[in-house]
Amino acid sequence: MAETIIFQSKPARPAPNRTEGLLPWIKLNLFGTWQSALSTVIIGALLVLYVPQFLNWAIFTSTTSTNADACRAAGVGACWGAVVEKYRLIIFGRYPFEEQWRPLVATLIMLTMLVVSCIRYFWSKWLVLGWTVTLAAYFILMYGSLFGYLDVFGLSKVTTDRWGGLPLTIMLSTLSIMLAFPLAVVVALGRRSHLPAIRSLCTVYVELIRGVPLISVLFMASFMFPLFMPQGVTIDTLLRVLVGITLFAAAYMAEVVRGGLQSLPKGQTEAAASIGLSYWQTQRKIILPQALATVIPGIMNNFISIFKDTSLVTIVSLYELTGSHGLAFNSDADWRPFKLEGYLFIVAIYFVFCFAMSRYSLWIEAQVNKSKLR
What we know:
By secondary structure, the chain is mostly helical.
């Protein structure tokens, strides 16, 4: 007799936990462990306590009046009229008021070239020509002549000691990065050289620069270096400061690059030698591309540091963004009580540029990771 088989359905299993969406993200990232939950509660309490006060000061009780007396009479709120009144002095420094269109155009040209340089489509040999034209246009507009001898378009000459504000900050940081990066790569290779003289020279340079603060380097470049020059020979202060920042940044960046070089296995170099590649071919085609891709976060960290460290040039009488803020508020007793609003204005400028560089670094890392997945 055949056995009868009866099929019975199993009870439904519980649905899997959601891993996408706002609530799962909050649970995982903010309340995943008791330490994370405690940190979330403490930070949330501080935000609830202080953010409403800041918003009340910055927005709800603020005023945009450009009259200092009206701002003082308005109460405890922010006076954004101080920024409206002083923004041109903050952004352009001591540059002649009627000629401020020139640093504006020069800065826009340089920023446009920076954006173009960050787009992969434009990475070609023509980029070098583009930067040559951009730098020539920048200095022609800012100074009013080419190399100090040839007048261009009838522009009046404005000496470098009157340059300031955001154009000076962008110019110093851009040129320092452009000059420091290749120097850092050479120094990093030199520190790993088998030639004792080259290795020792690069080591002394790095340790000497890293052993002193940037302020001392700027003082040396601005005040001490001219004492060693022959009688009657002078070098522009802006140029000396640019060289000082470049040398300082290159020393730190060289150690970052050297870390990337040391992270590669020795087999990479041996494999290159086995197929007959020279030293420079090996470095250019095999070693450096991998090493630089490994240390992208460290390199970008140095770039951001260079951009912010330009604020130190104020001590040698070059009034970049933060120095121009001091000129705008410290010299005007009526607006001096509202310099905090001015600081928040330049903080916003610094944040926009630094955040943009940080996001670009993440994009570069994503592109590198794509190549590793192939």
